[in-house]
Amino acid sequence: MFALGFAAVAVVVTRRTYQIESERDRVDADTREVQRSFSRRSQAGLVSAWWGQSRDGQWGAFVRNTSEIPIYQVYLTVLGLDDHSDDIKFHYLVVPPSNEALFRAVSTGQSAQETTARRVKLSFTDSAGVRWLRNQYGSLSELQPNLLIEADPLRAGVLSQFESDFLATYGVTVAFDTDTAGLPQQQVVAGLQNPSTTDALICPHDWIGDLISRDLVEPTVLAAEHQSVLPAWALSALTVSGRLYGIPTSVDTVALIRNTHLAPQSPETMDELIATGSALRNAGRVTSVFTLRVGEHGDPFQIWPLFTSAGGWLFGRTSDGEWDPTRIGLATPESIAAFERLGELGESGARLLRRSMDRDEAFELFATARSPYLISSSDALRRLQYSEIPIAVSAVPPFADGAPASTLTLVHGLVMAKRGPNKIIAHDLFADYLTHNHVMTALSNGIVAPVALAGASSADTAIQQFLELCERGTPIPLFPQMDAVWRVLEEAEVAIIAGAPADVTARQSAASVTAILRSVEGNPHGRTVVR
Predict the structure, then answer these.
(1) Which of 33, 79, 159, 324 has the most crowded Cβ, counting Cβ within 10 A?
(2) What is the CA radius of gyration of the chain?
(3) SS3 57
């Protein structure tokens, strides 16, 4: 009995001792965490920013680093009057230690009351490589050092080569999600509506209107030095209602790619192109006069130069040159005549355009010298780099009796996800990194396509020529309904090439586009203002 009692007492004592020791360990751990947090924040806590007035009376933003060590990749952002949207951004590669604040004057063009009621926020990397944000209310928080980009495998494969460089430069890990590659636009957009970890998306610029309408992306504010190296036309393609959405990356349009061995001279008209190709086919040197992808579902982007040269048009233009969705031109006499011209080249006519000609067949016929001409976007260059065909790139020629063969320009932009968990870092660091010449040149060479950066240059003359044509093209409209509009145009193209009546197809297409533009909730008149 005595032994049992002694054992019971020992158990109680041991348990109490364990509880005391556990509590002591917990307190020690909490103390160490507080000390660690204080140590990590020791430099960041000495960095501040504010809106104020300089000694000479100018209003603007101040930043000061009173620590003993420089801070890096500093972004000083002036917010709008709503205290939430970014308005103006300044970039400092480094802010050295000093008791004196750096000042950037800001001309707001607003009333005195509005000028004084501004706030600023500051993001920067400390000497230990930790990224920090001091928000517009002065609160300091540590930013998580990782980013996730949703992109197609080709672009992701090229940019992933710089993951270690990005980590070494900014202390941030970048990963790519390519699971949505090949999915229709609506499925990709729907995926972003669910809770996700995506911080940015690389997509064609005509997706942006839809993404904005669903409140999935937010504007991008670039520092002056970053904006200055990006072409104005590429920035304009990503601009809606005066706000920039994303950073331009690669660009594209449609051009004439010519086999210079079979066709040494560039044709001045489509009529001359068809005559030369027909002569080569009659001589048994080729099997196809020219190739242009159509496919079972159509591809209006590729055939657009022929459609416009024949007189066709989709939307009118406003007095300032913007697309006007209230003026739909598909049912006009000019567009009906253009559909008739395409029908003459289709399966019920000359059979130069046919639904069985998809992307792969068009590329293969040209790459194996069975066609002297290929009308295509720049994605053909990647296939042709493995062939020994001598090529030259030029503008698609117009019909002899037609208008200029106007092309559309497509800009792939890196767009910031509104719900991205690390979007502050995305806004800051992508703009800096994607304006480095070596990064964008590598992207151009890797995807074999032109990019929108003044200093990036590829030695490939075909890529250079495509870039020049992109500058001369017209950016695709980016209304929220453009995905549905493209589907209508695809159906019209396929129907016309199959032999459907031009007038009936044109009127049906115009009615469908009108209905699409008027079906948007809260926009019964179909009026979409795009800048």
Answers:
(1) 159
(2) 30
(3) coil
The tens digit of pLDDT for each residue in 322-358 reads: 899 999 999 999 999 999 999 999 999 999 999 999 9
Q: At what angle do helices 423-433 and 163-170 cross, to 10 degrees?
A: 110
Average pLDDT, whole number, for the chain? 90
What's the per-residue H, E or C state across 111-164? CHHHHHCCCEEEEEECCCCCEEEECCCCCEEECCCEEEEECCHHHHHHHHHHHH
Take residue 472 and report the two structure tokens written for it: 């001369």
- Enter the pTM of the model: 0.86
**Most confident range, picked from 413-427, 453-467, 489-503:** 489-503
SS3 286: coil
Q: Report the C-alpha gap between 500 and 122 in whole angstroms.
A: 60
Asked whether the beta carbons of 314 and 488 are under 8 A apart, the reply is no
- What's the pLDDT at 527? 36
Angstrom distance (rounded) from CA 469 to CA 466? 5
Amino acid letter for position 445: N
- Confidence (pLDDT) at 108: 65
d(CA 208, CA 185): 11
Which pLDDT value is given to residue 522? 40
pLDDT class of 529 with cuts at 50, 70, 90: very low
Q: How far apart are CA 185 and CA 481, in angstroms?
A: 12
Question: Rounded to an integer, what distance in angstroms lies between the CA atom of residue 422 and that of residue 410?
Answer: 28
Residues 6+ apart with CB under 8 A from 133: 121, 122, 123, 140, 141, 143, 424
Share of the chain above pLDDT 90, in %: 76
DSSP character for 310? Answer: T
Report the C-alpha gap between 75 and 58 in whole angstroms: 20
**Per-residue tokens: 58:** 């100018």
* Cross-strand pairs, 150: 177, 201
The position carrying tokens 């190709």 is 277
Q: Which of 115-119, 297-301, 366-370 comes out lowest in average pLDDT?
A: 115-119
The reported pLDDT for the residue numbered 22 is 67
Distance CA 209, CA 212 (A): 5
Structure tokens at 63: 């930043």
Asked if 253 and 393 count as a contact pair (C-beta separation under 8 A), the reply is no
CA distance 330 to 338: 10
